[in-house]
Amino acid sequence: MKKHNFSAGPCILPAEVFQQASEAVLDFNNSGLSILEISHRSKDFVAVIEEARNLALELLQLDNNKYTALFLHGGASMQFLMTPHNLLEKKAAYLNTGTWASKAIKEAKLFGEVIEVASSEDKNFNYIPKNFEIPTGIDYFHCTSNNTIYGTQLKSFPKSNAPLVCDMSSDIFSRDIDYSQFDLIYAGAQKNIGPAGTTLVIINKAILGKVSRKIPSILDYKSHIEKESMFNTPSVFAIYTSLLNLRWLKKQGGVSALAKINKHKAELLYAELDRNPLFTPYANKEDRSLMNITFNLANPELSHTFDALWQQAGINALNGHRSLGGYRASIYNALTVESVQLLTEVMQELENKA
Ligand SMILES: *Cc1c(COP(=O)(O)O)cnc(C)c1O
């Protein structure tokens, strides 16, 4: 039976990416060797990581003289501490829009003063705070573009003289924004880039080298840049599979082509949630995420019936994050319009039954 995977991460990737990745496990580039057994310093893999780093910048329309792209270990969670370690001399400002932002704030406090410019915790992070002020004299401003757990998304980004740092784990490559307004972007691969096990970090090199503390080499962005993202053994297979996905993205017409489809998918689902009286969307309307769509049943007693219906339809992983409950449909790049359509049909079926 065909599966429709709405998992929040690790998540769906295009079928052809799974196919090509599986072929490389058996025989990579007709070498007679598996991608899993070759040296990361081999000519074939050096070509992979170079292409992946360049293609990431190209797809985001970033100048590769100004920016550099790295594939690092440790997930987005490692970036919660690597960014302050490398950038925070005295104080930094953070926007608190949820669990991941809170975790980033907690780590930054180990390195200096953190000013929380605004928080949506008062309403359990169902909205994005607006009209906050970014103080002057900060080393950088940090925000989370898309709040995977709550289903909210920043539609625009504040301007300030300080470098702009963004955790884009769950919406990078999904929408048409000016990526050059950011100075540092990081994203765990497992939500729109590739499999778990690598993290994309994009840095405007000009912001580095300004803190006085000593940074252990493996935590220093400069060591990774100098070694062309091969300071230590990179996640060979995860990076190769990410490259396959980035190539797929380019073939579809790039980020703007996917952004149109993603918008259409989200509109379909929100329209059904707004129409169908059995469901209540979680996020504040103007802050709704186009990637993670959170909702509840108006009558929780219907959950057994609803759960049975979507599971029978082949839908996977529709439950909300364990900290929030309810439901969450993650509709990343590789999820098709048909899968979203199917979910809306299941919602209508529930309405007809109830
Ligand atoms: C999933 C997620 C993280 C955590 O990523 P890891 O790679 O597991 O460390 C951080 N931020 C956001 C926005 C996420 O969605």
Tell me what you see in this structure.
By secondary structure, the protein is of the alpha/beta class. It has helices at about 15-25, 45-60, 75-85, 100-110, 220-225, 235-250, 255-275, 305-310, 335-354, and strands at about 5, 65-70, 90-95, 115-120, 140-145, 145, 150-155, 165, 185-190, 200-205, 280, 290-295, 315, 325-330. The strands form 4 sheets. A 7-stranded mixed β-sheet has the order 2-10-9-8-5-3-4, with helices on both faces. Helix 4 links the parallel strand 3 and strand 4. It is globular, with a radius of gyration of 21 Å. The relative contact order is 0.17. Bound molecules: pyridoxal-5'-phosphate. Pyridoxal-5'-phosphate binds near residues 77, 148 and 169. This is Phosphoserine aminotransferase. Its main location: cytoplasm.
CATH fold description of the largest domain? Aspartate Aminotransferase, domain 2
What's the helix count?
Answer: 9
What is the beta-strand fraction?
15-25%
Compute the separation of the termini in Å.
26 Å
N-to-C order of helices and strands? EHHEHEHEEEEEEEHHHEEHEEH
How does the major sheet shape up? 7 strands, mixed
Write the layout of secondary structure elements.
Elements lengths: L3 E2 L9 H12 L16 H17 L7 E6 L2 H13 L3 E6 L2 H10 L4 E7 L21 E4 L1 E2 L4 E2 L10 E4 L16 E5 L10 E6 L16 H6 L9 H16 L2 H22 L3 E3 L10 E6 L5 H10 L2 E2 L10 E4 L6 H17 L1
Parallel strand pairs: 1-13, 3-4, 3-5, 5-8, 8-9
Antiparallel strand pairs: 2-10, 6-7, 9-10, 11-12, 12-14
Helix pairs in contact: 1-6, 2-6, 3-4, 7-9, 8-9
This protein binds pyridoxal-5'-phosphate (PLP).
The site of pyridoxal-5'-phosphate has 12 residues, from helix 3.
